[in-house]
Specification:
mainly alpha; 0% strand; 3 helices; 69 residues
Length: 69
């Protein structure tokens, strides 16, 4: 969260150098947490990240959640 706060401060101040450094720190933190980078699990399931739910095997489930459709 400290890196994200630094992004906000850099945006407010207009400091491009600080903004670039803060965004790099956010990226490093996300990679360390496994939120970015290569898939780390090996359960054999397809990686559906960045796919619309209506284009996946979850389509029927999603449609059943939509009232009035």
């Amino acid at each position: 969260m400290a890196a994200r706060r630094q992004v906000g401060l850099a945006l407010k101040s207009g400091d491009i150098v600080a903004l670039k450094a803060a965004r790099a720190a956010v990226d490093a933190a996300k990679r360390a947490l496994g939120e970015r980078g290569p898939v780390w699990w090996t359960d054999g399931a397809p990686d559906l990240n960045r796919h619309m739910v209506t284009h996946t095997s979850y389509k029927r489930w999603y449609e059943e959640l939509q009232p009035g459709q």
